[in-house]
Amino acid sequence: MPSGNSTLATPAERSGYTKTTPYDSVVAYLHRLSQRATADSAAGRRPHAMFVENTAGTTSEGRPLPYAILARPMVHSAREAHESGRPIVYVEANIHAGEVEGKEAMLALMRDLGVLASPNAPSVLDSIVLIVEPIYNADGNDHFAPQSVNRTEQNGPEIVGERANGQHLDLNRDFIKAEAPETRMTLGMFRDWDPDVFVDLHTTDGSFHGYALTYAPPLDPAAMFTGPYTRDSLLPMLRQRMHDRDHFEVFDYGNFEPERTPGIDTARHTWRTYDARPRFGTNYVGLRNRVAILSEAYSHDPFERRVASTYAFVREILSLIAERRSQILRLNASADSTVADWASHPGQGAAVPIRSAFAPERAIEPVLTEDLDRVAGPGGDTTLTQPGVPRGLRRSGRIHPVPMAVVDRFTPTLTDRLPLAYAVPAGDTAILRLLRLHGIQMRQLASDTALGSAEQFHIDSVTLDPTLFQGHHQATVAGRWLRSTSAGPVPAGTWLVPANQPLGVLAMYLLDPRSDDGIATWNFLNPELVPGRVYSVVRLTPPR
Questions:
Q1: How far apart are alpha carbons 80 and 457 in whole angstroms?
Q2: 8 Å CB contact between 88 and 128
Q3: Domains recognised in the chain with CATH numbers
Q4: Is the peptide bond before 2 cis (omega within 30 degrees of 0)?
């Protein structure tokens, strides 16, 4: 990874990768880069390629969230970006604030692309518009503590922030319920900019394996358009380029099941990915019909190597998107129009998954593992030999492939076809606010209106998870949509949510009570979720 000249070295580089960057220093560094880019442009040394905005939103602790825009020629608004005909790539780092390498890698990459790049050399910024939110969890970033407290399985730096935001919420579980100001800011960016590609930078704290970085596409089967393309086309090419050009081994995200100590136990294992629900950012973006990539640096690698692998991975993503820009723009436009067409001709489009489960293993495949050596101190006492490694064990550097089952995708367990629309009562303001946050199109009826046939959902059972999660007892609802025999015209004041819109799949996932991650899941309608009652949101289907 380029180290930059001494005057523009990042705070992490200046520390020799012993420290991560506090919020105030991130903001100061961003503005320093932006001022340098502006000055170079005014002096004719290079095209203006970067500027910084501080208007994305404010955290619960009052920190404005900065974001940077990089392009050549520069764009200053979402409208200009879309009119440029270039794909918009939105990179988000530091959503879990103890996972610090994404933040540091993006500070360096913005410098190298936006300030230090040769003015006459080709650049990815000629072919894409890049938006970077480098310190998404700004509050958690500055809740500093030793890594033995905040990141027990991470190899440096010694002092890092914490996973949760200032409200003690996990921001990467909030994309559906949108309770955090940071989430609402991101949804606003999605509404305004409608990025074509979303990249979410993390650090895994799981199994000991042999990869510098693992990755995942949108895993929800409802990401029917961009999920398979990302998984089967983009990510294999990125894996090959990381191997050939950057000399990093990368692979599909996962953990060993059962958990293993490589080199010590020999039981048969499975390499299994994580959750498919759209509460996770990359899964959520897949339901918006856009390409999304999760990046997970390897927490057991030293801090500097984790920054380097993340830097290389994002750089390769940007290069690949620049090369395939026309194909990606066509894919996204086709996805939007296809969803709208399905809803305009109910019964003819594909069934939309709204619940899923792990698919059977796709293969027995060699997965790189690293052996751990047993060590003991004087008298046989186990000692802590390396940060993030259990006592009595030490990384050996011996990495070898172990054949095992790979489970990295999901299969639908419940599907249904898009209706014409949903009808939301005027009084359900919490639901309406949530739909607006997500950018769902809707309109209020000015008068009683006959609109197709109404179906009401009759609730058979409601199960509340006894464990409190993110402040909620999540609900699972079972029941049946039945055609109403008594309903007349849809009354005035009702909000109509048409399914023939680009976000029709997302609207269905939010509003169908059987969904595994919708408004029913997150208790928006708990008072009415009673067996034997009827759900207040009605769906409209073509008249028979």
A1: 44
A2: yes
A3: 85-109+126-344 (3.40.630.10), 418-541 (no CATH)
A4: no
**Which are the contacts of 283, defined by CB distance < 8 A and separation ≥ 6?**
175, 218, 219, 220, 223, 275, 276, 277, 292
| Strand intervals (E) in 88-247 | 88-93, 129-133, 145-146, 159-160, 197-204, 213-216
DSSP one-letter code for 161: -
Q: What is the mean pLDDT of residues 309-324?
A: 98
CA-closest candidate to residue 269, choices 281, 282, 257: 257
Rounded Cα–Cα distance for residues 189 and 493 (Å): 29
Identity of residue 51: F
DSSP 7: G
Non-local CB neighbours of 259 within 8 Å, separated by 6+ positions:
207
Provide the b/e sequence for 269-282 (b: ≥16 CB within 10 Å): bbbbbbbbbbbbbb
Mean pLDDT of 157-165: 97
Q: Which amino acid type is present at position 76? A: H
DSSP secondary structure, 246-281, as one string: I---EEE--EEES---TTT-----EEE----STTSH
Give the pLDDT confidence of 489-533 residue by residue, as tens digits. Answer: 889 999 999 999 999 999 999 999 999 999 999 999 988 899 999
As a three-state string, the secondary structure of 208-230 is: CCCCCEEEECCCCCCCCCHHHHH
Average pLDDT, the chain: 93
84 phi and psi angles, rounded to 5 deg: -70, -20
For residue 445, which phi and psi values (nearest 5 degrees)? -75, 130
pLDDT in tens, 245-296: 999 999 999 999 887 666 656 566 899 999 999 999 999 999 999 999 999 9
